[in-house]
Automatic annotation (TrEMBL):
A Gene Ontology biological process term: siroheme biosynthetic process
Record carries keyword S-adenosyl-L-methionine: yes
Domain Tetrapyrrole methylase: 47-256
Pathway field: Cofactor biosynthesis; adenosylcobalamin biosynthesis; precorrin-2 from uroporphyrinogen III: step 1/1; Porphyrin-containing compound metabolism; siroheme biosynthesis; precorrin-2 from uroporphyrinogen III: step 1/1
Gene: cobA
Family (UniProt): Belongs to the precorrin methyltransferase family.
Keywords noted in UniProt: Methyltransferase, Porphyrin biosynthesis, S-adenosyl-L-methionine, Transferase
Keyword Translocase (UniProt): no
Record-listed E.C. numbers: 2.1.1.107
Tree of life domain: Bacteria
Matching NCBIfam families: cobA_cysG_Cterm (TIGR01469), PRK06136.1 (NF004790)
Protein name as it appears in the record: uroporphyrinogen-III C-methyltransferase
Coiled coil regions in record: none
An example molecular function term from Gene Ontology annotations: uroporphyrin-III C-methyltransferase activity
Organism: Vreelandella glaciei
């Protein structure tokens, strides 16, 4: 601070500085000081089908966070992260309907019945699903169950695994020079003797994203090569995308089965096929220089 020769001036200057500091500090100090619009309704007797995003709680929408804090009951799946569940007040009811290790998921009809029962008891209900509720999450069946019981439903989208995985690997899903189309595919059809239309899937101008495909990597690589994609066509696997334990493998259709056998990845895992994968920085130096999301990138 400059020293002023006139003591009165100095006094005024100090007072001015103190006041400006007090006025400006709250604006810049912490993001937490910013007021977020977390007010709104969460209606009794209504079900909210809410996307929890890919696991990183900061990737939750503000609306999802608000509803989780307000709902009387939350019905949730296996892929919802602990940080997200931590937002649910202890006074709210919680119902886990995901698959326990080695067991089947709760049947879909039972989940529908539970949501209808809770709503009819006059509760506000959040049906929380990993990623986006509209992407491979049986939302259509749940909407049908609610409609049949005349229970009002609201949909709150979430960040799907494909968006999270691409962001955390620092690549686009579409790109003018690489892929003008993007396709989300369930790998449940990709058994060795399965029925995917490999000819239709084997395109060089698009990015293919396979959900639920960790056990089908061999079939996917084989099917796409047989249908005409080159052996060196890029493919990447991202497990636990956007979470602290994220792991990835980057390779080609020819070598990925071997890479995966040598370095097995855990579930949940997403498979991305297409030339956008060429943009992944794979050298240790390049990875160290980039920080595409909070998750560390392990590329064996
Ligand atoms: C039943 S689908 C649910 C998809 C979810 N609704 C979404 O929009 O991401 C489950 C599959 O999503 C993918 N998945 C979900 N979360 C993931 C994550 N954090 N990292 C990688 N893959 C994920 C995996 O392929 C997993 O087998």
């Amino acid at each position: 601070m400059p020293a002023l020769s006139n003591p009165l001036l100095q006094k005024w200057f100090n007072a001015f500085m103190r006041l400006s500091h007090r006025a400006l500090t709250p604006l810049v100090q912490h993001a937490a000081d910013i007021r977020l619009p977390l007010r709104g309704e969460c209606r009794a007797g209504q079900v909210y089908l809410v996307g929890a995003g890919s696991g990183d709680a900061e990737l939750l929408t503000l609306k999802a966070a608000r509803l989780l804090m307000q709902a009387d009951a939350v019905v949730y799946d296996r892929l919802v992260g602990d940080d997200v569940l931590a937002l649910i007040p202890s006074s709210s009811e919680r119902y886990y309907v995901g698959k326990a290790r080695g067991h089947h998921s709760v049947p879909q009809a039972e989940i529908g019945g539970l949501m209808v029962k809770l709503a009819r008891e006059g509760k506000s209900v959040v049906r929380l699903k990993g990623g986006d509720p509209a992407v491979f999450a049986r939302m259509g069946e749940e909407l049908d169950a609610l409609a049949a019981a005349q229970v009002a439903a609201t949909i709150v989208p979430g960040i799907t695994a494909a968006s999270a995985a691409a962001a955390c690997m620092g690549i686009p899903l579409t790109d003018r020079g690489h892929a003008q189309q993007l396709r989300f595919v369930t790998a449940q059809l990709c058994r060795e003797d399965g029925t995917p239309d490999w000819q239709a899937l084997a395109r060089k101008d698009e990015t293919l994203v396979f959900y639920m495909g960790l056990s089908k990597v061999n079939a996917i690589c084989h099917g796409l090569r047989q249908a005409g994609l080159p052996d060196e066509w890029p493919i990447m696997l991202v497990a636990n995308a956007s979470q602290s334990e994220q792991q990835s493998l980057v390779g080609s259709l020819a070598d990925m089965p071997e890479k995966l056998a040598a370095t097995p990845l855990p579930s949940p895992c997403l498979i991305v096929v297409g030339s956008v994968v060429q943009r992944v920085a794979t050298t240790p130096a390049a990875l160290a220089a980039t920080n595409f999301c909070s998750a560390p990138q392990t590329t064996p």
